[in-house]
Amino acid sequence: MARKSKAATAASESSVEKDAAAASASAPGGESAAGKAAGLGDLWNAMLSLQIPPTALSDLQSNYIKQATDIWNSALHLGSLQAPAPKPLADRRFADEAWQANPAASFMAQLYLLNAKTLQQMADQVQGEEKTRQRIRFAVQQFVDAASPSNFLALNPEAQKLALQTQGESIAKGMQQLWADVQRGHVSQTDESAFEVGRNVASTPGDIVFENDFFQLIEYKPLTDKVHERPFLLIPPCINKFYILDLQPENSLIRYAVAQGHRVFVVSWRNPDASCAAWTWDDYIEQAAIKAITVTQEIAGTKTINTLGFCVGGTILATALAVLAARGQQPAASVTLLTSLIDFSANGILDIFVDEALVQMREKSIGPDAPKGPGLLKGQELATTFSFLRPNDLVWNYVVGNYLKGEAPPAFDLLYWNGDATNMAGPMYCWYLRHTYLQNELRIPGRLTVCGESIDLGRIESPVYIYGSREDHIVPWDAAYRSTQIFKGDKRFVLGASGHIAGVINPPAKNKRSHWIAPSAALPATAEQWQATAVEHPGSWWTDWSNWLATHAGAQVPAPKTPGNRKYKAIEAAPGRYVKQKA
């Protein structure tokens, strides 16, 4: 169970993680070859300027020698009668008693932890350009985690003991699971055979009432006799499948909204294949987000609708509403943004990957002007990248469990969703990366032209509910808070506990975690100022959001008997074909 809960938490905070990675955009036209080379030259110069102060290096060496000597002396006396029993190591990788029972393994684990700590301290002492320093720290962490003796059968006494107890069966099962993962192309994090989309995940009843090349629109079957007159449209991230919002009935945000009396519509994105490689950011805005808004209005027969965007879905929704505002339209009665980035000033760990050189590399390989034409960013590449943001929890944990111990990973719905990868169209991905993560232009009025319109998010008149997760390392909560300074209408900010996914998917019935709300409606300039007065409330933030949403949803009317309308008839049962397409 420990293996499941640790990995599940990490996955929940790193899966829609894929969101932030979708940061790679196309360079402005007409840039010179010299300008393109400048990014690589700057990186090289930054590397050359790095150094560790001599005094700091000397202190690190002295401390290392002292601690290594202590570990060596303890190991020499371990077998004597007077020697105290070794203390269990705090690191969970070495928590099993087999590590303490084997003097050589205990010594090796202690020395490894000392080496790891010293390398990390050296990385922290490096002086130079800040982004380069962050990259060095990240690279050192990757090396340290990969080099753990727990990751190797010859050095792992826990796995060796299990092999002896099972007469080699654990090793045989591990090899079988390794071969199966080689054929799958990824390390298994859960029993993938235990789930089927539409059967035991994404199972809330509904119908597809519209589809085009970009998405299917799901309308969910009402669970109440009456519904609010304004429908509710959810736009999930296009780099994940929508059913993170509908895993199981007990933790489904979609089902919860339906049960609260909302007429719920959800965008189910198509998983792009080679025929979609030329799709642009403008295509996603015009042909998907704006089209979904229009169809929802037409089906419900209302001028305005409630809207929600999750992760990059929030960025897409905000962009679409800005385009419509430029056209004189205000279709949103309310906007909910869940762990979404609008102001990309500082975005946590993902910032270390994004610079001019990276963006140009993506533009030249899969962007609209790539020599071989636009391409796809493969879903498995994104999934692997984000797993290595949390390597101990999302990679090495499974290498040890699956292969060294021969333990089949447990069935867990969130991890199944996390492994259900999606591709991204290269031009769209490149635009997003350049104009948001690299150049942070979405927040600047009139800086960007999208779908032929000069956009200004300040022209969106809707009230906005903004949610951030306190331990989110993909959309740091203070980054989510910065959206409060961009929108001009009424705003409410709520901070939830936990991470990117676990903080969002927190149903009230489980009575888990907490959320924070400031007693005043005022939203000061900085997140720190807001936090200074925020009050902690036990349990889920969903109830606060539901009460807020109801005030913008209109009167209660009889629930529709059939999905869609005369123009938009049911095409197939939810969750539809698109969500079942594999990357």
Describe this structure in words.
With 583 residues, the protein is α/β, with parallel strands linked by helices. Helix content is 41%, strand content 12%. The protein contains 20 helices and 17 strands. The strands form four sheets. It has an eleven-stranded mixed β-sheet with strand order 15-14-13-12-7-6-4-5-2-1-17, with helices on both faces. Strands 3-16 form a two-stranded antiparallel sheet. A two-stranded antiparallel sheet has the order 8-9. Helix 18 links the parallel strand 12 and strand 13. Helix 4 packs antiparallel against helix 6 and helix 6 runs antiparallel to helix 7. About 5% of the residues have low confidence.
Could you outline the blueprint of secondary structure elements for this entry?
Elements: H1 2-12, H2 18-21, H3 33-48, H4 54-76, H5 97-101, H6 103-125, H7 130-146, H8 157-165, H9 169-184, E1 206-211, E2 215-220, E3 226-228, E4 232-235, H10 253-259, E5 264-269, H11 281-300, E6 305-310, H12 312-326, E7 332-338, H13 356-366, E8 376-377, H14 379-387, H15 391-404, H16 413-418, E9 424-425, H17 426-438, E10 449-450, E11 453-454, E12 464-469, H18 477-481, E13 491-496, E14 514-517, H19 527-533, E15 535-538, H20 542-550, E16 556-558, E17 572-573
Parallel strand pairs: 4-5, 4-6, 6-7, 7-12, 12-13
Antiparallel strand pairs: 1-2, 1-17, 2-5, 3-16, 8-9, 10-11, 13-14, 14-15
Helix pairs in contact: 1-15, 4-6, 6-7, 9-15, 11-12, 11-17, 13-17
